[in-house]
Amino acid sequence: MARRPLPRILSKDSAQIARTQIARSRELARTAADSATDVLHPLITVSRGLRRLASAGRRRWVDTPKDRRGPLLFLVASLVLVVALVPYGPLLTVITVMAAAAWQGRDRTPSASDGPDESQSERLQALYEALVPYFSGPEDPAPLYAHGGGWENAFTDHEFDDSGRVGHLVIRYPAYFPDGEPVARARIEHLLTAKAGRGREYHFAWDEEGNRLTVTVLAPLPADVPAQRFVTAPGETVLGFTDPSEVQRTLPLSYGEERIDVPPIVWRTGIRSTEPHLLAMGHPGSGTSTLLRSIALQALEYGDVLIVDGGGTGEYACLTGRDGVLAVECALAGALASLEWAAQETERRLIAINLARQAGEPPPEDTRRPLWILLDRPGVFAHLAGAQGRKDPQVLLQVPLRHGRAANVTVVVAEQFESGEALSEAVRQHTRARVVLGAAAPQQVEMVLGVPPHTTPLVHMPPGRGYARLGSGPVHRLQVPRTPDPYDDATSDADRQAVLALLPTRSTPADAEDPVPVDMTKPTEPTRPAQSAVERTPLTAEAVGAETA
Q1: Is 286 a known ligand-binding residue?
Q2: What is the mean pLDDT of the chain?
Q3: Is 289 part of any known ligand binding site?
Q4: Which sequence spans correspond to the domains of the chain?
């Protein structure tokens, strides 16, 4: 039986030849791959561009509000139909799409340095060192935050604005940090606000499950949106505007010579409202009177308005004698008489609605028309009533506040922080919609809204800027539309004309009627313009029952 020869051990020359052949094979494969890439480069570029265009279209569709998706689909279908009917339309469309895909799919030259530069690294390191005392523990065997450590593992994402300051930052923190305690959160937020740059509004999103804190710099809200007619349904009132990420609805507005879509804060009133009354608080000059004027101009489109001004500055004189304005009272006697009539009118509406329901009939027409009671600075009237031994006008608001939703009566109260203790208990309990305007302290905002704000307030805020919370909902940033007093000398011509254009026609000139002497010891009843004598007379339960019988 023959034996197979053993394989011969490769010599030094044979090994060198084998390595050379392997290197040549790799070079040939690399050359073939480069050649194929060069040949298929246009196809690869176009494919990459189509993928990017499809991703951009998908993001645009997701960001589009649901109420605007139908018109968008109709517009796209119309464009497709027009392109299909135009000669050479499909061919030109394909060429345009391929060109756009080639442009979007081009190789974008990466920056020289993917990480932050020296100055940005110094800012991040300073933030890291400032957070070490709060995010470190002596018993931690592997601390994420330590003196002399690096920020690379603590800050997972970061962005800078054009000025070199932090614009977006994602911070990791240890699991033992008490992120559920408001005091601990407020301490970290105050520190980051001071270190990242003052004079800006920051939004803090705490992820308690993932132990991450996302810090975002918010863009300033537009403070120069003029007063105008908003596209709303009956029972909806626009308090102001907020961030696009907070609400799903937008309103088309006239912004100078342009038309823009701004996300609004819509307050719904009426029978089905869960927040039928509103309380606005602020410092002098914060814009509470501007908010009341804006609400009055919107309310006059569908209802009647009764204004009681405790400030006595005459900022609502432009509404005197207008259609739908029942009265504009600035004195204590007139305020008592007007609010007493409002309480009796609320009772009359309740009785009329109850009788109509018992008879199986719809409510009367006069009970379905909304009645708005706007009370500015009631603390002044409370002080005057106490000095003169009279009744506090806020006592007369108990019936409209408690039963106003069923009677289609809405109460709006504006007061300053200095006189906040003068507000009655009924006003505090029944005003579930809350607004805070001006540069208020976080403690003051939490006292009014019930929860602390989710952003850091500015030290100097423009008039009409603040926070709003409807019931138990979230806290939103708010910017009230610019609605100044048109009779003020400091008002510009554009703002004056914008407000005057929204005012109803004047039914009775302010100085047309002869003054009637009034007995100041007895409260007088305010007259309602363009109404019958029966409707002007306050009705009691016995009177309504006798009239129905």
Answers
A1: yes
A2: 82
A3: yes
A4: 118-217, 236-501
